[in-house]
């Protein structure tokens, strides 16, 4: 499956979140019922679509730490 660079408005396919240290965790949106976050070491977290939305809402409501 082809990985795409992160686009916050596109929750389709598998999104790669490559950092500056060579790590490339992914967020997999291919399942209609869950979101799967994977790290470079084989670890993964599965969230329901509702949990994913709650997580996004939580970060969107946090004040900016500039």
Task: Write up what this structure looks like.
The structure is a single chain. It contains one helix and five strands. The model has no long low-confidence stretch (mean pLDDT 84). The longest helix has 13 residues, at 49-61. It has one helix spanning 49-61, and strands at residues 3-5, 14-16, 26-28, 34-38, 44-48. The protein is α+β, with helices and mostly antiparallel strands and 66 residues long. The chain has one domain (13-61). It has a five-stranded mixed sheet with strand order 1-2-3-4-5. A hairpin with a 5-residue loop joins strand 3 and strand 4 (34-38).
Short recap of the structure:
The chain is 20% helix and 29% strand. The protein is α+β, with helices and mostly antiparallel strands and 66 residues long.
């Amino acid at each position: 499956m082809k990985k795409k660079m992160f686009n916050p408005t596109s929750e389709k396919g598998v999104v790669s979140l490559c950092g500056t240290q060579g790590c490339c965790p992914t967020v997999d949106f291919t399942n209609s019922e869950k979101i799967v976050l994977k790290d470079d070491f084989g670890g993964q977290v599965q969230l329901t679509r509702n949990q994913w939305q709650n997580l996004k809402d939580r970060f969107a409501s946090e004040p900016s730490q500039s």
